[in-house]
């Protein structure tokens, strides 16, 4: 029996979160941070175990034998990347919200830390589940702490935003449930009922039934990602969330959408994935352009960052359904990079909002003269969002575009327009907030209030990761490449041969 590394890794933050609901005095923040850091240490140990022997992380035990359900956990390169993203961001979020102004909050800072830790643990189980029913249960469970993070600590329209988030997510989850039940029926008809991924991939889903089952999963993942036209819940939820909650929502939780497309749609339904690919490519291109245009027109900083993510998720989905090894590798790397890039944006925007008391872009102006360090961090965060060379987002975006170009140059050309638009919304945001004459509002709120030591402690690791993987992406790319190779083998699509004009 192998040591249950992944089980412990997921249970640690959940246990810490539950304990935080018990009566505590002023040590509650430190208690939450302890569990977040402990989970980070165990997560790094898991990465070391994976490097030595990936199979040693596998846990499999019969759970509900009557329906073929297992407590089955494991990790490939993609799952490990998402786990590392989660365990790194969680303590940074708790630190960023350490002195969160909880005025108007329904619950205490202690409850906030508890919800973040529980969300972390549930997310880890989502990214490591090798049983479809287990994945579904944790997929739905993540909605609970996220809902309470929004409704308990959000802005004036938090009830509306939280309910919209919940209804969209539950609708997608209900449709997925129908497909989960369908998997039971199909597996039972072809031998014995099972939800174990290793068994399901051996079954034949190359029929209309397989397509319908895949669509059920895909709708849930499209909502989660999110993609146009089911994206509207994200800007509302992000606008009304605290910066830390928005980081967990967009930086971690929404990755379940693209994660699920690769692991379950491509993994279980290769024929159906090839069938739906043209539609998904069109939706991806629409999301890229619409998200970028909406970001350009946004007047609220939190909403602006949310719309940029809609555009970025379009790139990720494009890389998946272009069905090339560089495209899928780029998407998985993009998921990791986007998590850190989005965290940088939401958290630095949160520091601006904390000082100015508003997220309205028009309330700022000339801020760089008053807070040069904060201004520099803000600029670097936006440069990561637009994919500047030297930052890791450039590498992943380039891989997606290169992989897409090999399949169809027109798709890559249209997507490249989104790259141009990203430069527009990034530079517009910086110009509006940081440049120009110092406004009366900026002078009153920012004078003598540059980044504190604690705020630097949050931002330095995030920006450091973006810079490190920008100049040296090989470790991360090497980690995720096997996932892309396996996905390409499952869909039975060969990479297009390179063509050079004039060479035969």
Can you tell me about this structure?
Strand 1 and strand 2 (69-73) form a beta hairpin. The chain is mainly α. It has a two-stranded antiparallel sheet. The protein has helices spanning 5-19, 28-52, 77-96, 109-128, 132-141, 143-153, 158-189, 197-200, 208-224, 233-240, 243-253, 255-268, 270-297, 301-321, 325-356, 372-385, 392-407, 409-434, 440-446, 453-471, 474-491; strands spanning 59-64, 69-73. The protein is 73% helix and 2% strand. The chain has a domain at 275-495. The longest helix is centred in the middle third of the chain and has 32 residues, at 158-189. The protein is built from 21 helices and two strands. The protein starts with a helix and ends in a 13-residue tail after the last helix. Helix 5 packs antiparallel against helix 7 (158-189).
In the predicted model, the low-confidence regions spanning at least 5 consecutive residues are none
Number of helix segments?
21
Q: Mean pLDDT, rounded to whole units?
A: 91
Our estimate of the beta-strand percent is under 5%
Biggest sheet: strands side by side, in what order? 1-2
Class derived from helix and strand content: mainly alpha
How can the largest sheet be summarized?
2 strands, antiparallel
Instruction: Tell me the span between the first and last alpha carbons.
Output: 56 Å
Radius of gyration over all CA atoms, rounded:
22 Å
Give the total of beta strands: 2
Shape, principal axes of CA atoms: globular
- Helices and strands, in order, run as HHEEHHHHHHHHHHHHHHHHHHH
Helix content: over 70%
């Amino acid at each position: 029996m192998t040591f249950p590394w992944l089980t412990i890794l997921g249970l640690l933050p959940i246990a810490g979160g539950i304990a935080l609901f018990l009566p505590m005095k002023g040590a509650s923040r430190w208690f939450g941070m302890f569990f977040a850091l402990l989970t980070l240490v165990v997560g790094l140990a898991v990465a070391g175990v994976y490097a030595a022997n990936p199979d040693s992380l596998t846990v499999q035990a019969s759970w509900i034998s009557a329906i073929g359900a297992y407590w089955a956990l494991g990790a490939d390169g993609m799952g490990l990347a998402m786990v590392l993203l989660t365990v790194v961001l969680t303590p940074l979020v708790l630190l960023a919200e350490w002195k969160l102004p909880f005025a108007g909050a329904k619950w205490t800072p202690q409850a906030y830390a508890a919800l973040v830790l529980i969300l972390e643990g549930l997310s880890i189980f989502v990214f490591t589940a090798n049983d479809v029913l287990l994945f579904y249960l944790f997929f739905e469970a993540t909605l609970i702490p996220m809902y309470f993070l929004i409704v308990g600590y959000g802005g004036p329209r938090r009830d509306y935003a939280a309910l919209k988030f919940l209804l969209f997510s539950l609708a997608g989850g209900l449709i997925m449930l129908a497909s989960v039940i369908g998997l039971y029926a199909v597996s039972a008809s072809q031998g014995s009922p099972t939800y174990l991924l290793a068994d399901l991939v051996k079954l034949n889903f190359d029929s209309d039934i397989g397509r319908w089952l895949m669509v059920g999963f895909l709708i849930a993942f499209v909502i989660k990602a999110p993609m146009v036209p089911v994206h509207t819940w994200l800007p509302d939820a992000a606008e009304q969330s605290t910066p830390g909650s928005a980081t967990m929502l967009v930086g971690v939780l929404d990755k379940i959408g693209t994660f699920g497309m690769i692991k379950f749609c491509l993994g279980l339904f290769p024929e159906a994935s090839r069938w739906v690919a043209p539609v998904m490519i069109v939706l991806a291109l629409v999301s890229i352009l619409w998200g970028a245009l909406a970001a350009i027109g946004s007047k609220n900083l939190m909403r602006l960052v949310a719309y940029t993510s809609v555009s970025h998720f379009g790139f990720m989905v494009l890389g998946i359904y272009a069905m090339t090894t560089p495209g899928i590798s780029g998407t998985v790397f993009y998921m990791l990079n986007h998590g850190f890039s989005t965290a940088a944006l939401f958290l630095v925007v949160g520091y601006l909002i904390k000082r100015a008391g508003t997220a309205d872009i028009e309330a700022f102006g000339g801020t760089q003269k008053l807070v040069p360090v904060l201004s520099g961090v803000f600029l670097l965060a936006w440069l990561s969002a637009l994919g500047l060379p030297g930052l890791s987002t450039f590498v992943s975006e380039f891989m997606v575009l290169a992989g897409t170009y090999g399949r169809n140059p027109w798709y890559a050309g249209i997507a490249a327009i989104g790259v141009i638009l990203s430069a527009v919304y990034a530079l517009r945001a910086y110009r509006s907030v940081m440049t120009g004459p110092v406004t009366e509002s900026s002078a009153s709120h920012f004078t003598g209030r540059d980044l504190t030591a604690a705020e630097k402690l949050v931002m330095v690791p995030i920006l450091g990761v973006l810079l490190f993987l920008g100049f040296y992406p090989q470790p991360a790319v090497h980690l995720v490449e096997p996932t892309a190779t396996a996905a390409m083998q499952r869909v039975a699509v060969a990479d297009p041969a390179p063509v050079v004009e004039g060479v035969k």
